[in-house]
Amino acid sequence: MSVLEGKELRIVGFLCNWCSYGGADTAGVGRFTQPTDLRIVRVPCSGRINPLFVMKALIGGADGVLVSGCHPRDCHYAEGNYYARRRLEVLKGLLPVLGIDPRRFEYTWVSASEGQRWQHVVSSFTAQIHALGPAARFTEAPEPARLGA
Amino acid sequence: MSIQDELKSAITAALPDVSCVVGWGAGPEPLRAAPLFIRGEADLEGFSAGFLSVNNPALYLPSLKGSKVGVVVKGCDARSVGQLAAETLIKREEVHVIGYPCRGVIDVDKVAAKLAGACETGEVAALREDGDDVLLNTPKGEVRLAKKDITADKCGRCAFPNAGNADVFVGERCAPVVTEDGYADIADFEARGLDELKAFWEQEMSRCIRCYACRNACPLCVCRDQCVAMSREPHWLSQGDGVRDKLFFQIIHAVHLSGRCTGCGECERACPLGIPVLKLKRALSRRVEKLFGYKAGGGDTPPLLTFLVEEPTIKERDWK
Amino acid sequence: MKIGVFICHCGSNIAGTVDCAAVAERASTYPDVVYATDIMYACAEPGQDAIIAAIKKHGLTGVVVASCTPRMHEPTFRKAVERAGVNRYMFEMANIREHVSWIGKDIEANTNKAAELVRMAAAKLRLDRELKPKSFPVTKRLLVIGGGVAGIQAALDAADAGLEVVMVEKQPTIGGKMAKLDKTFPTVDCSSCILGPRMVDVAQHPNITLYAYAELEEVSGYVGNFDVKIRKKATYVDWDKCTGCGLCTEKCPSKKSYDRFNEGVGPTTAIIIPFPQAIPKKASIEREYCRQFNKGKCGVCAKVCPTGAVNYEMQDETVEVKVGGIVAATGYDLVDWKVYSEYGGGRYPDVVTSLQYERMLSASGPTGGHVKRPSDGTEPVNVVFVQCVGSRDPSIGRPYCSGFCCMYTAKQAILTKDHIPGSQSYVFYMDIRSPGKGYDEFTRRVQEEYGARYVRGRVSMIYPKGGKLMVRGADTLMGTQVEVEADLVVLAVGAEASANSSALAEKLRISYDGYGFFMEGHPKLKPVETNTAGVFLAGSCQGLKDIPSSVAQGSAAAAKALGLLSRDMLDSDPQIASVSVNRCVGCRKCIEVCPFKAIQEVDMRGQPKAEVIETVCQGCGLCNATCPQGAIQLSHFTDNQILAEVEALCRF
Description:
heterotrimer, A: alpha/beta, 4-stranded parallel β-sheet, B: alpha/beta, Nuclear Transport Factor 2, Chain: A, 3 domains, 5-stranded mixed β-sheet, 3-stranded antiparallel β-sheet
C-alpha cells in the first residue's frame, strides 16, 4: 500500500496538536478542498519535532515534508516553536549537500483558526512537490560495478 | 628555550596540581604521533608537540571530568575545550589548558598519495623536519616533501592557531592562516549539483563499514556508550548494511553536532576509508554561522539551545 | 497485542467519500490487528457499546477508531475503552473526517488515504504503553481578569458558590463598557441601575479581592496551581486612606485632562474618581496631566486631602497570588474610526461615536443628560446615525459584524426622541441584525412609534455646510442618492478585541484568532473553555456579544471553574516526559531548554542525571527532541512511536 500511483506523491506532515492540527481540522470543518497527498503525524508541539524525523522521512522515501506549528508568541507551551524555528531553519542547510532538493522541506505556522491558510499551505506545498516530481530514492546498494570506481 | 622545552616545563609546573596532562608522544609508526597521558616527569621524555600532533586531546576530557587535568592543545583543540565547557560537559576550572602556536599538522593520506607507487606510509622508517620540508626515510631512499603539500586541509582555513582560552601559552602567537572561514569547500562541493551529490553519498556510504571511528574520534560526541547507533533504542537505525542506514547515521551525527561542531575534522581523519564525513557537519556549521553568527568553541551558549523571540536573520516563507 | 480497528461512517460525513468497509478490510491485514469493522456512528451509544463488546469478545488490548479529529472525541473513546477494561492510553485515533472525507471528493484517493492513516495509528498503538495519571492538590482560588459585566458575573457566581476570587481590572474602576452606557436594549433599563448593585456586591463580597488599576504581569504554573504576578499601578493616592470624598477632584487646578470614562466628552481633572458609582470609589492621579509631575510644583490635592492620602512618591507594586483557575474577561475596544476620512476623520466636532453619545445621554455624564452639539452647545434637531463604521468592512481589516450596534443604535434613536421630542432621527444601515428575544420588535418600535427613518445604504461622505453636516449616502431600496442635513452625526463604531489582548493570550498560553479574539476550546461544545486547561473565557474577549450573552458566558465560565475547583485533587496528564537513567549522560541540555523548569539534575551514585518533576511537566516534548541519545522520552509520543508512524508511511 502506498500513495496512489501516478496521482499522489508521498508528503509527510508533522503538526503540533494545538495550533496547526487544529487549523487542519478547521479547514476540514469548513470543507476547504485540499490535495490528498499529505499524511499528518500529530505531535504535541513543534518543539517535539526532532529534525531527524524530517530526515528520516526524506531518506526513507518521502517526496516532501511539511512541518507546521503555532505562530511565534502563540505556542501552547510558550517556547517550543522558537526552538523548532531555529532547528528547522538550520536543517535546511543540510539538504543540498546530501543531494536532496531543499524545496522538498518547508516549515510554517498555522493557528487553529486559520483553516483557509492551512488549505493554502497544503495546496501550494503539494503543488511545489508535484512540480519537483518524485524524489529519487537513495539506493540501498549502488551497482557493484561502480564500487571503487 | 625551544617550544618543546617550554611546553615540557609548563607541563612540569602543572603536574603537582593535576592527575595527568594529555599531550602527544610517539605513535605506532614514524608518521603518526599518539595521545600521551603524562602522570609524572618520567612520562615527559616521550612528549612532543608539532607537525605530527594530529589527535585532538580534548576528546578525553569529558571522561576525566571530576578531577583536575592538564591538556596541551592546538588552536583547534582549544575550540573543542571551549565548546565542551560552554555545554558544561567539562568544568573549565577543572582543566588546565596549555597552548602553543600551531602551524598546521600532517595529513598522512596526503603523504600516502605522494608516496604512491614508491612505498606504503607504514614503510617509512623515520621522519625528520627540515624547515618548511620533511625528509622521509623510505625503502626507496630519502624523500623530501614540502609541508604545505602534506598539511591537513583544515589547517588551510585555520582562523584560530593560538588556543585563545589557554591558561598558559608558550611561544609567540602566530598569525591565523585566514581571518574568516569562507566555507569555499562546501560551496564547491554543492556546486556539483543534487544528482551528483546523491550518487556521491551512495557511493561513499556503500564503502562505510560501520566502525564508528568517526564518532569515537569526535570530542563532542557525548552520548558515548548510549549512542543510538549501538543501542538501537530509540530505533533510529537498524543493524542493516544498507546505504540508507549508514548515511542516516552520518546525518544523525551531523544533526547532533549542529551548532556545536568546531570543525576539528577528527571524524574525517579517523575514517579508515577516507569518507569525507566532515562535509555534512561543515554544511550545517556554515548555516549556523550565517544565521546566528555563531562559531562553536567560543564559549557562548550553543544557538540551538536558545532562541530569540524575533529572529532577525530568519526569513520565513510567507506563503503568499 | 490484539488490536481492534473501527472505521466510523459518521453517517454520510465519512462514508459519503470513503469506502469504510474497504478501509476496514485493509486494516485487518495490518500487524497485530485481529479485528476490524466499519460502524455507523462510533461515538453514539450503540457505537460505543459495539466497541466495548468487541473488546470483550476478541480480547482486544488496544483500539483504533478512525473517525473525526482526536481533538473532538479522543476523550469520549478513551472513556469507552476504559469501561471495557482497557487502559485509556491503549487507544489511537485516525482522523478520516476533517483530514480526509471533508476535504476532497475522490473516493479512491480518500479510501487509500484513510487506510494509510489507520496504518499509522495502528503502528503507533503497537508501541503505546499503559499510563496512569497521578493526582495533585488544587488551589481553590479563581483569578478573573477584567471587571466588566462578564467578569463581574463570573466573579460573583464563583464567590457566591464559596470560591475565593481575585479580580484584576486595568482601569481604576470596575464596570467596563456597561458602566458607560445610559440605557440598555431592548428594555431601555437604566444601565447603572442594574450594573451598580453588582459592582457594589463585588466590592463587599467577603470572597472577592479586587485589584483595580492593576494588570496581569506574569502567569506560570498549570491548571490547579497557577502562579500569578499582578502589577498594581501607582495611583499616587493611598487607597487605604482615601474615602472617596472627592474634594481633591474639586480643587485640582488641572482641568483639561482627557476624560477616559466619558470618552472625551468634556474635560476632567488630573486627579479623578471616574464616576460617582465607581468601584472602588477612590481617587487616582493621571500622571500625564498632573502639574505636580509635569511642572514639579502644585500639590493642591495633597494639601486639601483630609486624610493625607495623596502620595506623589508611590511606585508600582507587584502582588503574587496562587490560583487554581483563570477566567479571562477582557472585553473589547472600539475600532479606530478615524481611518474613515470620508467621515471627517475626527475633524468635525459634531460627528461623535456611539459611546460618546451614551455619555451625552447619561444623566451622570458631563452634559448632565442633555444632548448638545459639541461645537456650539445647541440642541440638535436632525440626528443621523451611521451604522457599520468599522464593522463588516474588509477594507480596514474588520470584515466581521460587531453584533450589537444595530440594537444600540435603535435604542439611541428612541432615547433621542425621549430627550428631544422635536427631533428627527435617521439611521443609515446595511442590514438590521436583531436576532434576540424582543430585539426585532424593538427595531420596529423605533421606526413605527418613534418615527426614526431607516435608510438602507452606506454613507459615502459627511461634509460641513453652514454650521450643519451634510450626510450623503445611497438609499439602495429606492435606488437613489440621498442627502440629509444633520445637526449631529452619531457613528455606530464597531468593536475589536481590546488592546494588548494578544499579549495577554501569550501570557495565558491560550490561542487567539487573527483579530485578537481568544479561541474557545471548541466552537460548539466548549464555548467557554480554552485549549489550556484551567483557563476559561467570558464576554467579548472571545467574540463580540451583547450584555445578556456576556452575562450568560460569565456564569458559564464560573460554572466551569467551579466544576474544576470543587475537586480537592486533580489527575495529572500522564503523557509527560520520563528519563531512562542508565541512558542519561547528564549533559543538561534538556534542563536548559525546558520552558517549565520541569527537569532537575539529580545525583545518582556520583553521576549527574536528569529527573522530570512529574507535576510540573506539561508534555511538550521539547526535551525529547533535544536529547541526542533519546534518554528522555515523552510518553505516548515517544521517538519510537513517531518513527513507527513515519515508517508506516515511508517504508525504509
